[in-house]
Design brief:
alpha+beta, Rossmann fold, Neuraminidase, 11-stranded mixed sheet, 4-stranded antiparallel sheet, 14 helices, globular
Length: 690
């Protein structure tokens, strides 16, 4: 799970744009709306249509010869692929014609003749791969079946017209591997998966060299598939190392490069000789897991590594780039990623990250030691003052250090002692996963909430990644336990610092964050004034039994080991005890829930259950449903319409500012399945959108 309600109603409205509305029952319990915050209401709010518009530019890349740049840019709100001469980036032309959903990702073919596009149809995560002819714009489907899920394994300089793709056409649980001709679209199966491998590692000549199997205890075994040692185990990653280790690539000489935490707490960079199994440490982590690597030259020499203890920090590993990094840090003045390099390594594509402004993209000229700005990720907001985000470290009750990120409303700042002179309403923003993390980035959710007058606190509770595997392992079987204690400790920290108003604190999150919202309201019912649950599981035994075929072999063993096993009587009982449904009768404050019909990770039935339980008690709950979305909402109109509803929900609960609904519901396929009457102005906005 990475990283959202009541079916019976008095009346329905059929609205323009596919919007269907289910009004709440007439008999509703009353609750007191919070007084509006005067300071927030007096400011000119950033429009939701700007905050949640599809990024103006994203996913910027060099072509293989460095002569072109490519990027995602929206056409009528939908991301499409554009290309432009690297020397004249303003002369871009659109290459694709997607009108409903844009690409999830893309990659150039090795010869630059094609761009490979990965996308699904409606958020189902059944990824399709297409090849776009860069010269003509012609598109060719490489999968041949919209019901199968494909993964791009590798392209090759030596075989530039071929892509190596894994898909589950033969077996929905375990993919086979195919060579696909990018021009003709012909597919040839080159490896039949009889070994229950969930993924593969290929060599530069497109030989399928390693198969990866997830074991019943959650560990991962890497087995050799070629040569005299075929069938032998190269290595096994224990479950404790799985979330902090990953393969980076396999060289022609048989050296497997990977980020590996085995034998240490922090993840290091290593090379493994697949012929002998010998492990060589190439770079040792300093203060946090190594999360990215910059290499260069014919031998892929390690030039620098990236860590993120509180902010992103590059560790220079070669004197050849020391002057570049010093100059970049001076010129850009903040965190940055190196997204791509030209073949001669003389130019780098840099994504600058401040956390307080939209990201910016630059070309770094290593010879001139100068940066040329290309684009801003959100051009309408590039000069707009937004709330400042800063890292803070919060102590947990048992001595853990919780790296967190605090965003304050515009015009507010902590005093010299790290406090606010007067508390404000606060939203606790909980990340998904749970084995992911928050970072100091330009987070549109946090910026939106801060602009409306709320302090926003994002907490890396135990189980979050990047801080060493011991911190991940501390979450073992701690759902609703110490993982939730960390969130409560963070709320109490903010209250103690005079940042948060104890009576005006909400909890808000997607996926595991949505689960945390439900846990916050049902397990600690006196802490939060309201909650927003986006695709949050409510019934854990059912969640683990509902995994899609292609997902279950890889993740089910990890969930069964790290959380509990629903196949056993004791495990199922423990999972039910940790389920918000088991304590739905303890929820006492308003709740907003949303879910996408195509969500393969958290099925809508998870939301239906909690909403129906609250409806049976006449409890204030609003359910927003999207028939054309999956787990993470992608459409611009979806994001704008949902945040319009959430904004007015929070304003009624916490007293922050709210932009009028205006036309933000028009054109969305949103269905309000319950509780429209609980959100002031929503029924009128629905009528206006008809």
């Amino acid at each position: 799970m990475n990283c959202q309600f009541v079916r019976r109603a008095r009346m329905f409205f059929a609205l323009r744009g596919g919007l269907a509305v289910c009004l709440a029952a007439a008999m509703v319990p009353a609750y007191v709306a919070a007084a509006p915050d005067a300071a927030a209401s007096s400011r000119t709010l950033i429009p939701r249509s700007s905050l949640f518009a599809t990024n103006t530019y994203s996913e910027v890349r060099f072509s293989p010869d460095g002569a072109w740049i490519s990027y995602l840019r929206p056409v009528e709100g939908v991301n499409n692929i554009w290309i432009a001469p690297a020397a004249s980036p303003s002369e871009g032309r659109v290459l694709t014609k997607f009108s409903v959903r844009g690409p999830d990702s893309y990659r150039w073919s090795a010869d630059g003749a094609h761009i490979l596009v990965m996308k699904d149809n409606g958020g189902e995560e059944v990824t399709q791969i297409s090849a776009i002819d860069v010269r003509t714009g012609a598109i060719r489907d490489l999968g041949g079946d919209p019901t199968i899920r494909s993964t791009l394994l590798r392209t090759s300089k030596g075989r530039p017209g071929i892509a190596l793709i894994a898909n589950n056409a033969r077996d929905r649980s375990y993919p086979d591997v195919y060579e696909v001709d990018l021009t003709a679209g012909e597919r040839k199966r080159v490896y039949t998966n009889t070994g229950t491998y969930t993924s593969f590692v290929a060599a530069p000549d497109l030989t399928v060299s390693i198969g990866i199997r997830i074991n019943e205890n959650g560990s991962a075994t890497y087995e050799l598939l070629q040569g005299e040692r075929a069938g032998e185990t190269l290595l096994t990653l224990p479950l404790i190392d799985l979330r902090s280790s990953r393969v980076l690539g396999l060289s022609a000489s048989g050296m497997l490069r990977m980020i590996d935490s085995r034998g240490t707490d922090k993840a290091n960079l290593v090379s493994i000789d697949i012929a002998t199994g010998k492990v060589t440490r190439l770079a040792e982590a300093v203060s946090a897991d190594i999360i990215d690597v910059l290499t260069g030259g014919e031998t892929n020499e390690v030039l620098a590594t990236l860590e993120d203890p509180k902010v992103k920090e590059w560790k220079v590993r070669s004197p050849d780039v020391a002057a570049d990094f010093a100059a970049i840090e001076k010129e850009i003045g903040g965190q940055f990623l190196i997204e791509d390099q030209t073949p001669d390594d003389r130019k780098w594509l840099i994504q600058a990250i401040t956390g307080n402004l939209p990201d910016r993209f630059f070309i770094w000229d290593r010879d001139a030691r100068s940066a040329t700005m290309l684009f801003s990720a959100k051009e309408p907001l590039q000069d707009r003052v937004v709330g400042e985000t800063r890292p803070v470290v919060i102590p947990s009750r048992d001595g853990k250090s919780l790296v967190s990120y605090l965003t304050l409303p515009p015009g507010l700042a902590l005093n010299g002692e790290g406090n606010l002179d007067k508390p404000v309403p606060m939203v606790l923003l909980v990340h998904g996963g749970p084995w992911l993390r928050d970072a100091q980035i330009y987070d549109e959710e946090a910026k939106w909430l801060a602009d409306r007058g709320y302090a926003v606190l994002a907490v890396n509770f135990r189980g979050s990644t990047g801080f060493g595997k011991a911190f991940i392992d501390a979450s073992h079987k701690e759902w609703t336990g110490k993982m939730h204690d960390d969130l409560i400790d963070a709320v109490n920290w903010a209250i103690g610092r005079g940042i948060a108003d104890r009576s005006k604190t909400a909890i808000y999150g997607l996926s595991y964050g949505g689960y945390s919202t439900l846990v916050g309201l049902s397990f600690t019912p006196d802490v939060f004034a309201c909650g927003v649950d986006l695709a949050g599981p409510s019934n854990l035994p059912e969640l683990f039994s509902e995994m899609p075929d292609w997902w279950a072999p890889q993740l089910a063993p990890q969930f069964r080991t790290r959380v509990n096993d629903p196949r056993t009587k004791a495990g199922a009982a423990d999972l039910w005890r940790r389920s918000p449904m088991s304590r739905a009768d303890r929820i006492r404050v308003p709740l907003l829930v949303t879910n996408g019909a195509n969500d393969p990770r958290v099925l809508p039935s998870q939301s239906d259950q909690i909403v129906n339980a609250l409806k049976a008690r006449n409890h204030p709950v609003t359910y927003i449903f999207y028939p054309d979305e999956g787990h993470v909402y992608e459409k611009q109109k979806t994001k704008v319409s949902f945040h319009a509803v959430a904004e007015h929900f929070l304003a009624n609960c916490l007293g922050g500012a709210a932009e009028p609904f205006g036309n933000d519901l028009v054109g969305s396929d949103m269905e309000v399945r319950a509780g429209a009457a609980f959100i002031p102005g929503l029924e009128a906005a629905i009528d206006a959108a008809r």
